[in-house]
Write a structure and sequence with these properties.
Blueprint (H helix, E strand, L loop, with lengths): L1 H7 L4 E4 L3 H10 L2 E4 L2 H10 L2 H19 L1 H12 L9 H15 L1
């Protein structure tokens, strides 16, 4: 939730690469960067300029509006009530859902 709230405010994010979910959101949105260790995190903090931060924040904000706005949630809900299958707009998102489902089933 914090990730999406940060993007809703138009701010960029930095996430730990150990979380596939957070990295997946960053990849789909182009709104954040991820690190594997302290040195990578420090490099990101020291090397990313303000223009890049602004662009990451804008891209994250667009991702939230397109996928997690009240209008989008209502649309998905009404489609479900009408018996329509949910439209997954991003194939990488679908692949991530499938991987997660397999892990839970094991």
């Amino acid at each position: 939730m914090v990730l999406l709230e940060t993007w809703a405010a138009g701010r960029p994010t930095i996430v730990n690469a150990a979380s596939e979910v957070l990295v997946g959101h960053c990849q789909r949105s182009n709104g954040g960067l991820w690190y594997n260790n302290y040195d990578e995190c420090a490099d990101i903090l020291q090397s990313v300029n303000n223009q890049t931060k602004d662009r990451l924040g804008q891209q994250g904000q667009r991702y939230v509006k397109e996928n997690y706005s009240w209008a989008r949630a209502e649309s998905v809900y009404l489609e479900a009530l009408a018996g329509k299958p949910p439209a997954i707009q991003n194939l990488s998102a679908a692949a991530g859902l499938q991987r997660g489902a397999r892990r839970r089933a094991e």
